[in-house]
Amino acid sequence: MTIQYIGRAAPFALDPAVALLGNEREGLAIDFTRDRAYNRDRVTAANNYLGGAASKFSVSRASDGSRYDAARVLRTDGPNVLRLTHDPITGKALGALLEGASTNRLTMSDDYRSNWSPGGAGVTITPDAAMAPDGTMTAQLVELLGPDGRVSQPYTGAASTLHTGTLFLRALPGEAGTWPARLNGEGSGATTDNKLVAINDQAWTRVSLNAVSGAGGIIRLFVGDRRDGGALTKAYVWRAQIEAASFASSPIKTVAAAAQRLADNLSFARSGTPEGTVVIEARTAPGKVASGSQGLFYWEDGTVNNRIILARLPAGAMFMQMNVDGSAPKVTVLDTANLPDNTDFKAAMSWELGRFSLSVNGAPARVSTSYAGPLPLINSIRIGTSGLWGGTVARVRLTPRATDPSELPGLLS
Amino acid sequence: MIDHLIRCATQDDADILQEQYGASRAYQPRVILVDAVWDMADPENPALVSAEVTASGYHVWIALDAVDGDLRDLPDNACRLIGDRSLCGPGATWQDVLLFHAADISPEVLSSARVDPVPAGTDYPWRVVPA
């Protein structure tokens, strides 16, 4: 059947950033998942903008960083490039990846023939044996020999510190089974995490291990350790990584030396408004920080004294907070639900003189009217808060008018 | 991108300098002059023969879009080196990539020292001995 449009234009797709802003007369909408941004300013025409998000809102990061493309291939972006990433399993566009600084403490992350120590009956390593997650022929074929073959690399860092070890694993063609990976703290007070990882020949699996270093600070990653058993004696292995962190960040390639990915700082100038509403769609980090908050959205004056923030508490709950002429918060609105790690969610916050409200995932807004003083003078927005967020940000919508708390959940539908 | 390696006298000074530029532009590496030597007879339990030797002071690596004259001109040879990472590549030597180095850094030190960790994606010629 042919559909004909007579007397009117054929339907067309609105630019996603324009659609995100909707009928608002002014405001800013950024759809990082589609790399589009729209700024509508009815006072200063020169501020109007419709175009790419990454080109408009550059990030500061003085190192390479990795992210997944839509085909789930791991790509490397150069310094100061905003990383627009995708889910490594589903390929879903996640938007801007905003991580803190982190170091891969291991050397030779993609080659286990040097700087790595065989143990027991040893291993056979075949370099460049298969296509790696980044599309290059750099995956290593590791064969664990005898009853106790293994290969590992130690790192000596701070004592009694939680570390995360990661590596990519994939079974040989026609095979599936379990593979023994292990992260070993060594010495007094250390812990160990050994896993039999279920892998197959269809996709790469990135396994994550957590262990605490002992008194001597030594932590050791075994990319395979036959002593732990496992059905498979051969597997493709790639991008071994140890970070002094509670959860894994994006993969960092190393060669002769440990390498640091610096923090993503996505910030831009924008004057604050006497009232406003911010709506954000994001995904939480793969883990929580031990202390402090994971900042998602900061509108500030460059200090802690004047700012409106949206952040995640260590336990997982989102909160909005406002400081005015001092580091002590004037208002805190806390959502009581703890958001799980690595989870998509939507949040909306609104402020005006004497009323502050927050809604997460469409729940009835939590409202504070405890402060009726002046609002802060602010001029700069940070999204992801210099990497403290640790997750991704899909969409941001900012309008210079408050929203009634009863209407706030409706913005998240 | 232009990299500056700055030596501070104290840990507090290094922390303040790093904070000034932020975690997206600055971090604190170690500067290793001589690597530790290990007896690898038992690869899983290597025995330390001699400990690594690190440079004195507390170092901050700062990456900027251009040379910062104020950092370069810090007193007491605090600016150890300034390099242009865009000039790195296969076969590049320090002569090719270095824009400035402190007067007390000899060619021998340049060919033997290294920083740890390095910024991801950079390939400065650490430990490359000029032909």
Structural class of chain A: mainly beta
Q: Which quaternary structure do these chains form?
A: heterodimer
Strand content of chain B is 25-35%
* Low-confidence residue ranges of chain B: none
Proportion of beta-strand residues of chain A? over 45%
The helix count of chain A comes to: 2
Number of strands of chain B: 11
Overall strand count of chain A:
31
Order of adjacent strands in the largest pleated sheet of chain B: 2-7-1-8-9
Specify which chain pair forms the largest interface: A-B, 34 and 24 residues
- Unreliable stretches of chain A (pLDDT < 50, length at least 5) are none
Rough outline of chain B = globular
Give the helices and strands of chain B as they follow along the chain. Answer: EHEEEEEEHEHEHEE
Task: Give a description of the structure.
The complex is a heterodimer of chains A (413) and B (131). Chain A has 413 residues and is mainly β. Chain A has helices at residues 16-21, 53-56, and strands at residues 27-31, 36-40, 49-51, 59-60, 65-68, 74-77, 84-86, 93-97, 102-104, 117-119, 123-130, 139-144, 150-156, 162-170, 176-185, 192-200, 205-212, 218-225, 234-243, 259-261, 265-269, 276-283, 294-300, 307-312, 317-323, 331-338, 344-352, 355-360, 366-368, 380-383, 392-399. In chain A, strands 1, 2, 3, 7, 8, 22, 27, 28, 29 and 31 form a 10-stranded antiparallel β-sheet that branches. Chain A has a 7-stranded antiparallel β-sheet with strand order 4-21-30-23-24-25-26, with no helix packed on it. Chain B has 131 residues and is an alpha+beta fold. Helix content of chain B is 19%, strand content 34%. Chain B is built from 4 helices and 11 strands; from the N terminus they run E-H-E-E-E-E-E-E-H-E-H-E-H-E-E. Chain B has helices at residues 11-21, 69-72, 94-97, 107-112, and strands at 2-8, 26-27, 30-34, 37-39, 47-50, 53-54, 58-64, 79-84, 98-101, 114-116, 118-119. In chain B, the strands form 3 sheets. A 5-stranded antiparallel β-sheet of chain B has the order 2-7-1-8-9. A 3-stranded antiparallel β-sheet of chain B has the order 6-3-10. In chain B, strand 4 and strand 5 form a beta hairpin. The A-B interface holds A 59-65, 76, 78-80, 100-101, 103-105, 117-119, 152, 252-253, 256-265, 386-387 and B 1, 22-27, 29, 40, 43-44, 46, 63, 114-122, 126-127. Strand 20 of chain A pairs parallel with strand 11 (118-119) of chain B, so a sheet runs across the interface.
